[in-house]
């Protein structure tokens, strides 16, 4: 029957699209709307934890603010983007003293999106995402 091959291919494509969109992988990426991209905040502290994993790297920083210790969680780019900007797993390690520029969370909680990291020896790393 003429045209049945195209119908079959179209049906398979539709089925695969539905499976992808219906799977958790289809929803894995999120918006960065929770960060205030109009503000840059500079934080200096000690790295408490680093999670080098996709979809995004997380750096947790202990910061002293007016005598009070605060724990901040900052989200970076994906591993591939960070690697292209010069990051390695040894760029930021637990115990390192670093300065971070971040776009803070809009709700005021202690967190943000990494814009730039400066290590104690002066190395500067970007966040691994598109320029703003």
Molecular structure report:
It is globular, with a radius of gyration of 20 Å. By secondary structure, it is an alpha+beta fold. It has two domains: 1-28; 41-126, Nucleic acid-binding proteins (OB fold (Dihydrolipoamide Acetyltransferase, E2P)), CATH 2.40.50.140. The protein has helices at 4-22, 79-84, and strands spanning 41-51, 58-65, 68-75, 97-104, 111-119, 124-126. Mean pLDDT is 80; it is low at 12-28. The termini are far apart. The protein has a five-stranded mixed beta barrel. β1 (41-51) and β2 form a beta hairpin.
Brief account:
Helices cover 19% and strands 36% of the residues. It is α+β, with helices and mostly antiparallel strands and 132 residues long. The model is unreliable at 12-28 (pLDDT under 50).
Topology:
Blueprint: H1 4-22, E1 41-51, E2 58-65, E3 68-75, H2 79-84, E4 97-104, E5 111-119, E6 124-126
Parallel strand pairs: 3-5
Antiparallel strand pairs: 1-2, 1-4, 2-3, 4-5, 5-6
> What is the CATH H-level superfamily of the largest domain?
Nucleic acid-binding proteins
The number of helices is 2
Largest sheet: 5 strands, mixed, barrel
State the strand order across the main sheet: 1-2-3-5-4
Radius of gyration: 20 Å
Beta-strand percentage?
35-45%
Helix content: 10-25%
CATH class of the largest domain: Mainly Beta
Mean pLDDT: 80
Q: Between the first and last Cα atoms, what is the distance in angstroms?
A: 54 Å
How many beta-strand segments?
Answer: 6
CATH fold category name of the largest domain: OB fold (Dihydrolipoamide Acetyltransferase, E2P)
Which runs of at least 5 residues are low in confidence (pLDDT < 50)? 12-28
**Structural shape:** globular
The SSE order reads: HEEEHEEE
Counting structural domains, the number is 2
